[in-house]
Amino acid sequence: MKKIIECVPNISEGRDQAKIDRIVAKLKDKPGFSLISAEPDKDYNRTVITVIGDPVAIADAIPDFVAEAIALIDLNRHTGEHPRMGAVDVIPFVPISGIEIEECVKIAEDVASIVSARFDIPVFLYAKAARRPERILLPDIRKGEFEGMKEKIKDPLWTPDFGPAEIHPTFGAVAIGARMPLVAFNVDLATAEEKPAKDISRYLRGSSGGYQFVQAGPAYLEQRGHYQVTMNILDHTKNPIYRIYEAVKMEAKRFKVEITGCELVGLVPAAAIVESLRYYRQPEGKKTPEDMPFEELAQEAIKRLGLRDFDAKKIIEANLPGAVK
Amino acid sequence: MKKIIECVPNISEGRDQAKIDRIVAKLKDKPGFSLISAEPDKDYNRTVITVIGDPVAIADAIPDFVAEAIALIDLNRHTGEHPRMGAVDVIPFVPISGIEIEECVKIAEDVASIVSARFDIPVFLYAKAARRPERILLPDIRKGEFEGMKEKIKDPLWTPDFGPAEIHPTFGAVAIGARMPLVAFNVDLATAEEKPAKDISRYLRGSSGGYQFVQAGPAYLEQRGHYQVTMNILDHTKNPIYRIYEAVKMEAKRFKVEITGCELVGLVPAAAIVESLRYYRQPEGKKTPEDMPFEELAQEAIKRLGLRDFDAKKIIEANLPGAVK
Fold it and tell me: Do B10 and B74 sit in the same domain of this protein?
């Protein structure tokens, strides 16, 4: 099975489209991976870039991409609502298929080593790549931001994992790491009352004793006129979609509230769909191969999970160059 | 609502029945609480005593009970398979009804203060009463046992929470704390194959991403010829029985394995039954009051959760003096 990762670097430029284009160009039309999106936010003054494809090809492209950000962004002149500490602020590597999180940690370490040596910038390893517990969460590392990092980085507690213990004068510092793909999954409840969505969210979410990798809360959909349980699944291999869907259905029975639909927001890895289809298809004696065509995968997901507004384009791998539709 | 707690002191004597009887007598036929059981184990050389009832009455009885253990047990002459550090080794206070865990922590602190002052013995606060993270788990405190505690207690890390920083020469030291009642819940699978029970256990248990307060594993019942998912629910207020039962049923569908029954092992708090009955009865428009008669509670629990070998005597509160059957 081919190894596929997602990489989602964030740069601290969201207003100057010419600069954004020049930096993003370093990740565009390259062999071995695809640029999925580059979404600038003017208020944040930040752009989120998503690429997917071959791990080696992506890792090889990152240093030139960082070089362009160094050349074009000066954090001394950067303002915006989103906290930031670097011109490239964060580079997460995310396993999509045929690859485990451990290998993404290795890639993060390699890229951190190369980038810090070539540009003399400090790198903090974060998330699954973190080497100290206080570096798991990005906000903890970034606290103080570019301005505060000048002093913070001299504290032995915040000696970077790679590079010098002082920030680059215009670039700052960068966090590089590995994390699981996040699945944004919402379940529609046929009610305009908040209580069922609120209670079910509490039953489900890890922080109140529910499924460990689930974040959940109630959300009212103004246009549609009903509540939903809106969730992030932080590790779909441990908390698959079907389990969370069935758990919401089970809890909703108490309130006699119907489930009218579900949605997957953003892109979803094929493996997350395959795993959940297996739950439903296995008792029917049906195989669900990992390489099921994307169209069929999407149709089955719509049928089994009651998904609305879903199609094959929402499957990450369907966006790869040469993907069989 | 009347406050009811359970208290389960363990003493380091399980062979000399005359001594056991004299110590247990201090918790027997007292106003305000009932002695439920005193179970000596010869191999362990240890007796587990269970009382339930009024928190103040129980707390008031503990010092005289400790005095009798000091008079009759000399740990220098104690051998047995179970680790121990004190003549009374551990005293947990458990909220049953009308009382929160925080109040049981307060009771543990008060009893610790009184007992340490009156008998000059060191006390470690543990579980929910622990004041340091390394004192949450009893085995961590008890490591080294009576013999090793002589030195260990001089380490500033192990200065007791109450009493002197040296062990009592014959009694040793005691851990006093508060914890939630544990619900031992098993679900029968109609199969002699291990895989379904093993997989479902992994899906359910907190340590692999499932429900946080669930411990689960597969167990083969030799006599009955089938597997079960055997579980401990460490906090039934966060992970109610119905939720765990329904989750096992949901996961079992994948394997096309029938659920033929369930069992609750040992005693269960009425509140744990009431909470779960509400899930099933609420959509039928039926109220489930906290003071539902124990017979009715038991019959409904058998019907809704498919319990076998269950009756009202397994409800903790039904064992209280003057309990309405």
Answer: yes
* B247 near A CB under 8 A: yes
Complex ipTM over 0.90? no
Specify if A325 maps to a domain. no
Residue type, A140: D
Q: How far is A202 from chain B (nearest CA, A)?
A: 9
- Res. A325: pLDDT tops 50: no
Out of B150, B178, B206, pick the residue that ends a domain.
Answer: B178
- Co-location of A232 and A146 in the same domain: no
Rounded Cα gap, residues B54 and B32, in angstroms: 5
Cβ of B268 under 8 Å from any chain A Cβ?
no
Residue A12 falls inside a structural domain: yes
Give the Cα separation of B102 and B236 in Å (integer): 16
- Of A178, A203, A218, which residue sits at a domain end? A178
Alpha-carbon span A166 to A271, nearest angstrom: 41
Shortest distance, CA B14 to any CA of chain A (angstroms): 37
Distance from CA of B285 to the nearest CA of A (A): 10
Of B78, B82, B168, B236, which one is the catalytic site residue? Answer: B82
Q: How confident is the model at residue A310 (pLDDT cuts 50, 70, 90)?
A: very high
Question: A71-128, pLDDT tens digit by residue?
Answer: 999 999 999 988 999 999 999 999 998 899 999 999 999 999 999 999 999 999 999 9
In-domain check, residue A324:
no
Domain extent at residue A80: 4-178
Instruction: Name the β-bridge partners of B126.
Output: B177
Per the CB < 8 Å rule, is B246 touching A250? yes
Find, among A180, A182, A50, the residue nearest to A102 by Cα.
A180
pLDDT tens, position by position, B139-165: 899 999 999 999 999 999 999 999 999
Quote the Cα angle for A168-A102-A25, to 5°. 45
Total domain count, chain A: 2
Q: Which residues of A have a catalytic role annotated?
A: 82
What pLDDT, on a 0 to 100 scale, did the predictor assign at position B323?
67
Residues A262 and A299 in one domain: yes
**Are B209 and A253 a contacting pair at CB < 8 A?**
no
Catalytic (active site) residue B82: yes
Instruction: Tell whether A199 lies on the interface with B, counting CB pairs under 8 A.
Output: no
**Residue B111 belongs to a domain with what CATH number?**
3.30.990.10
